[in-house]
Amino acid sequence: MQLDQAPSRQPIPREGLQLHLPQVLADAVSRLVVDKFSELTDNFTSPHARRKVLAGVVMTTGTDVKEAQVICVSTGTKCINGEYMSDRGLALNDCHAEIVARRSLIRYLYSQLEHFLSNSDDDHQKSIFTRCDNRPGFVLKENVQFHLYISTSPCGDARIFSPHEAGVEDQGDRHPNRKARGQLRTKIESGEGTIPVRSSNTIQTWDGVLQGERLLTMSCSDKIARWNVVGFQGSLMSYFTEPIYFSSIILGSLYHADHLSRAMYQRITEIEELPQCFSLNRPLLSGISNAEARQPGKAPNFSVNWAVGDQALEVINATTGKDDLGRPSRLCKHALYSRWMRLHGKLSSTLRIRTVRPSSYHEAKQAAAEYHSAKQTLFRAFQRPGLGPGSRSP
Ligand SMILES: [Zn+2]
User: Fold this and answer.
1) Which of 22, 153, 154, 391 could be bridged to 254 by S-S, CB 3.0 to 4.6 A?
2) Which one of 67, 98, 192, 370 is the catalytic residue?
3) Is 169 a catalytic residue?
4) For the chain, what are the domain ranges?
5) How far apart are the CA of 143 and the centre of ligand 1, in A?
6) What does 177-226 look like in DSSP terms, one character per residue?
């Protein structure tokens, strides 16, 4: 095996327990996601195989990479047009592939909790969750790990300074202290780039956006950095489980060690103490041995998703956030919240957050106090070095 010596191309190992060899794991994760996508698109011949970015999550349950399983796959590079936002939670606002992959993964976690509650012993045993020993809630079984694959560098801070593959002689970021490094960035409506967050446009109002003000959505780099602090499970899932973090983030192309590590966690290492159970997660970061070629052509307007147990891909129009017949996605807030409500009812005796049955989505989310405290701590970490709102003019 010819090992590539350029420092920018080297994997950065995960902090904590290493169950796999980084490059072996990265290549396996990439292959599994691409193969699953091929299977779901009849060997890439389906019209819905068209894509710019492909993402997916692979689960490992031990040290053997051969036992890894694809949990979900998704594509997409666009966000909703502000006029289609749904006040009933029926539309997907952000259809970037990695964001859709996380929503699919949450759907999978719900199904695993449902398995746990199932009357069938077999289903119960097969669940990836087990009850916590002496406190309420659930934990993942030992050695269960999730690995996020993205076919290219996530938009925003990770990608903006690494638009090309790292060269063999690439010695890393030559200007790591430039002010533009590490800044929070937002996606712009109906576009594919990102811009730094400015104080003047951080307050968005519903009526403003409906009237045509540009809808700003956090870049994928910033969202993933957030998952590395508060977990990817979201506030609702935190009623049932402790925070769950990605063990690896694998890029199919444009992997650049300095830029990716800065965007994912290095820019917030000064973060203050987090609430119990939360920590700054430093996952394995790695490219793959044979980087994927750039996907030429115009980016399609649709985004697809699939998770274990689904018959087929679901195709969502990224502009409207629904399918072409106007039906809501299985990943929309409304759908996930309905499932959460059922679980909340069944698990009321073992919830990590004790509240009376919440009367609204907002109330349910707000009651996750520790989660919100962790999020506020992250927010302060982003503001401190001048990365966030109000600190820079364009
Ligand atoms: Zn993105």
Assistant:
1) 153
2) 98
3) no
4) 7-383
5) 29
6) T-TTTT--EEEETTSS-EEE--GGGS---HHHHHTTPPPEEE-HHHHHHH
